[in-house]
Design a protein that fits this description.
The structure holds 2 protein chains of 2 kinds.
Chain A: H1 3-12, H2 21-43, H3 50-53, H4 57-80, H5 95-110, H6 117-122, H7 126-150, H8 156-176, H9 184-209
Chain B: H1 5-16, H2 20-44, H3 52-65, H4 76-94, H5 104-107, H6 123-128, H7 133-143, H8 149-155, H9 160-180
Helix pairs in contact in B: 1-2, 2-3, 2-4, 3-4, 3-9, 7-9, 8-9
The chains are: A mainly alpha, B mainly alpha.
C-alpha cells in the first residue's frame, strides 16, 4: 500500500469518534472499584469501632492522605496519557499527600501519647497492610493501564508507575477503614512500602503494555 | 514554530469536528515533513533510509488512531512530533537498535526542503495479509481500489455502518500487528 492510499483510507475513517481518555477512565474505574470493594468486604471489612474512630483526627487524616494521593496521581496519570506530556511542572502534585502526612506526624509528636514511638510506628497490622493494599489495588491498576493504552503516552514506564500510585491510593483508602493503627508514623512507614510494590508493578507492566 | 503549523492546527480542529476533506489535506501536508524527519533520523542512526516510508506510514496510523489525545486548544505541531519521535524510536528498536532520536529530526525540517519521492513500503502490505478476511477485503477495497464506503458496502452486501466498523478495526489491528513485528 503506498502512502497516498493510506492517507485516503485514514480520511475515509475520519468520522470514527473515540471517547476522550478522562471519560474512559471514569467508566473503567466504575467497573473496577466494585471488584476491589468486594475483596475488601470479604477479606477485611470496616473496623468495628468505626463510629468512635471517626472522632479521632488521626483516623480521619489517613483518608485525607490516601485520597490526596489518589487525586494527584490520577491528575498526573491523565496528563501523561498525551504523547507530548512530561512530568515537568506536574511532579510536585505528588508531594501533596507526603506533605499532609508529614504535617500529621509533626502534630502527633506535639501531642501527649500513651504509647511509645516505636510501638506506634510498628503497630499491629503491618503484614495485613502490606498484603491487602497491593491485592486490592490490582483490579484498579489493571483498569488504569487499560485506560492508558487508550491514550498515547511517550513514557510507558513512568505512566505505569503513576497509575500504580493512583491505584494504591484508592486501595489504601479502603484499607484505612479496616486498620486500627491510626498513627501517622504507621501510615508513613507501611503504606509507602505497600504502595512501592504497586508502583513497581505498574512501571513493569506499563513498559510492556503502554507502548503505542 | 514553523510557518504552517498554525494552519495544521486549524485543519486538525476541522478534522476533529468531522470535516474529512480538511483531514485529508492535513495528512497530505504533514507527510513530506514526516518523511524528511524519518529519513534524517534513520540516516543519523546509520539505518537504511529506504525504510523511511514504513516509518511514515506507521506515524500516520498512530496520528489517526490517537488523535483523540490531542488537546484541541493546544498547537498541533508538538503533539504530532511527539507521536512521530515515538514511532521512529519504536521502529528502530524493532530493527534491533537502541537509539535516541534527536528531538529536532522532525521539528526542524525546513519547509521547502524538496520532498523525496515516495519510496516503497512493505510492512503494511505484509501485515495486511494476516488480517481477518472481512477486514482485509474492506481495507483493500477502500485503500487499493479507492472505492467509497458506499460502494464497498454494496460490493460485500454489508451496511455502511458495518463497513465503517470493519475499516476502523482493520486499521487498529494493522497497527497492533506492526507493533508486534
Amino acid at each position: 500500500m503506498d502512502t497516498e492510499q493510506l492517507i485516503r483510507t485514514l480520511a475515509a475513517d475520519g468520522s470514527h469518534r473515540v471517547r476522550p481518555v478522562g471519560f474512559v477512565l471514569a467508566l473503567t474505574l466504575l467497573a473496577a472499584m466494585p471488584i476491589s470493594l468486594a475483596i475488601f468486604m470479604m477479606g477485611l471489612g470496616v473496623r468495628p469501632d468505626v463510629m468512635t474512630a471517626m472522632h479521632n483526627p488521626f483516623f480521619d487524616l489517613k483518608f485525607v492522605v490516601t485520597l490526596a494521593l489518589t487525586a494527584s496521581a490520577m491528575v498526573v496519570c491523565l496528563h501523561l496519557s498525551r504523547p507530548e506530556a512530561s512530568l515537568e511542572g506536574w511532579w510536585w502534585l505528588l508531594l501533596i499527600p507526603a506533605g499532609i502526612l508529614a504535617a500529621g506526624i509533626v502534630s502527633e509528636m506535639m501531642l501527649p501519647q500513651r504509647l511509645p514511638i516505636m510501638t506506634r510506628l510498628i503497630g499491629s497490622n503491618s503484614r495485613i497492610c502490606m498484603t491487602a493494599i497491593p491485592l486490592m489495588s490490582l483490579p484498579i491498576l489493571a483498569a488504569a493501564l487499560i485506560v492508558l493504552r487508550h491514550g498515547a503516552t511517550a513514557r510507558p514506564a513512568i505512566a505505569g508507575a503513576i497509575a500504580g500510585l493512583a491505584s494504591a491510593g484508592l486501595a489504601a483508602t479502603l484499607y484505612a477503614s479496616h486498620c486500627t493503627d491510626d498513627s501517622p508514623l504507621f501510615v508513613a512507614t507501611w503504606y509507602p512500602i505497600a504502595t512501592a510494590l504497586v508502583v513497581a508493578l505498574g512501571a513493569l507492566a506499563g513498559a510492556k503494555v503502554l507502548r503505542f | 514554530m514553523r510557518e504552517g503549523e498554525d494552519e495544521w492546527t486549524g485543519l486538525m480542529r476541522l478534522a476533529i469536528s468531522g470535516d474529512s476533506a480538511a483531514y485529508h489535506r492535513l495528512l497530505k501536508a504533514i507527510t513530506p515533513v514526516l518523511r524528511a524527519g524519518a529519513r534524517r533520523g534513520l540516516a543519523r542512526a546509520g539505518q537504511p533510509v529506504d525504510q523511511s516510508e514504513d516509518v511514515v506510514q506507521e506515524i500516520l496510523l498512530a496520528v489517526h488512531l490517537k488523535r483523540h489525545t490531542w488537546d484541541t486548544n493546544a498547537p498541533f505541531g508538538p503533539w504530532l512530533f511527539a507521536i512521530a519521535r515515538n514511532k521512529l524510536i519504536d521502529a528502530m528498536r524493532r530493527r534491533g537498535r537502541r537509539i535516541f532520536v534527536n528531538i529536532d529530526d522532525f521539528a526542524e525540517t525546513i519547509p521547502d526542503e524538496p520532498a523525496p519521492q515516495t519510496a516503497s513500503a512493505n510492512e503494511i502490505a505484509t501485515a495486511l495479509k494476516t488480517l481477518p478476511p472481512r477486514q482485509r477485503d474492506v481495507l483493500q477495497s477502500i485503500a487499493v481500489e479507492s472505492a467509497s464506503i458506499r460502494d464497498t458496502a454494496a460490493k460485500f452486501a454489508m451496511s455502511e455502518g458495518a463497513v465503517r466498523v470493519a475499516l476502523h478495526r482493520a486499521l487498529a489491528s494493522l497497527t497492533a500487528k506492526l507493533r508486534e513485528q
